[in-house]
Amino acid sequence: MSGLPKTYVQGFHDAELCKRMEYRKLGRTGLQVSKVSLGTATLSDLYGDLDLNEAIEMVHKAVRSGINYIDTAPYYGQGRAEEVLGMALKSVPREAFYISTKVARYEKDLVKRFDYSAKRTRESVEKSLKLLGLDYVDVIQIHDVDMANDLDVVINECLPELERIVKEGKARFIGITAYTLEVLKQCIQRAPNRIDVILSYSRHTLLDDTLKSYVSFFKEHNIGIVCASAHALGLLTNSGPQAWHFASEEIKAVCRQAANICKAANIELGKLAMYQFMQLDGASTFLVGMETRKLLDINLAAYYNGLDEKESKILEQLRKTLFTKTLNWDGVEQAEYKKAVAEASK
């Protein structure tokens, strides 16, 4: 059991739930963040139709329950997630949460999706603050640095602009995100002491646990580790992924088999995935996307209570029969992006 965090607000929070939540230091930032944190790609059309009122209630319940770190991005619904989150946060005390948003990834159109320029970075931060209804964010992140054609534009143009934005008080700390772990490492090596936080997604799941081998590097550099996407962007759930998912048919088939086994046992694969996800030593927080109070309850139950005997047996069965090797989609989006840009330039 944890003590009450600095973000605790008497009269707003559920004190008992906050005491049950563990809070961890986010690298050199000094922020004490909840072990479970809230991702908001789900507050858009990326994962199907959104019930606005339910989403707002979910955000309120999450923060009252002790979740104090919230992550969003302009790309999620082209600003819709930030807009919905802004609506929800109007009735939440600012001191009750830490928030991160991103720059560099924007459009659904693959050709126009990424822009690491200083000009677009500045415009993006201003727009995000307006949509969120905030004067500043706690962490501003460069979204998917592994999609840049050359890291030079990230380090020599985007990052310096974010440093100026931090000096202006519109953000407090700087982070980077990527699916390809080696690129996160390269960025930190090329920009020493300039990056405070990394976000790695879908790299500590039932499918792929390669983040483990990078933890010591990030810790040596005093980098806060946000371990994101317990469910591998929807793959590891009973309902399955969206049509846009970059995973191969082989990976999707394995996950469908796992979901069918769970459905037959009246178990939610997502709960097993959430439990597995949180078994990583060294991460500061475990970020999971949610859009309903029901999903929030399932994920918090996996954190508070672990798995029962039946769920544990099914998880062990899945590990031994289906999730026996590393399965990922590294390089797939990069290849599609480069192909689309090349075709558009002809």
Description:
The chain has a single domain (33-344), classed as NADP-dependent oxidoreductase domain (TIM Barrel, Alpha-Beta Barrel). It is globular, with a radius of gyration of 19 Å. It is of the alpha/beta class. The protein is built from twelve helices and ten strands. The model has no long low-confidence stretch (mean pLDDT 96). The relative contact order is 0.13. The termini are far apart. It is 41% helix and 14% strand. Residues 36-318 form the NADP-dependent oxidoreductase domain. It comes from Ceratitis capitata.
Key structural traits:
alpha/beta, TIM Barrel, two-stranded antiparallel ribbon, 10 strands, globular
- The CATH superfamily is NADP-dependent oxidoreductase domain
Q: Please indicate the percent range of residues in DSSP E strands (runs of 2 or more).
A: 5-15%
* Computed CA radius of gyration, to the nearest angstrom: 19 Å
What do the pLDDT scores average to? 96
Q: Which strands sit side by side, in order, in the main sheet? A: 3-4-5-6-7-8-9-10
Task: Name the CATH architecture.
Answer: Alpha-Beta Barrel
The assembly state of the depicted protein chains is single chain
Number of E-type strands: 10
Question: What's the short story on this structure?
Answer:
It comes from Ceratitis capitata (Mediterranean fruit fly). One of its GO terms (molecular function) is L-galactose dehydrogenase activity. This protein has one domain (33-344): TIM Barrel, CATH 3.20.20.
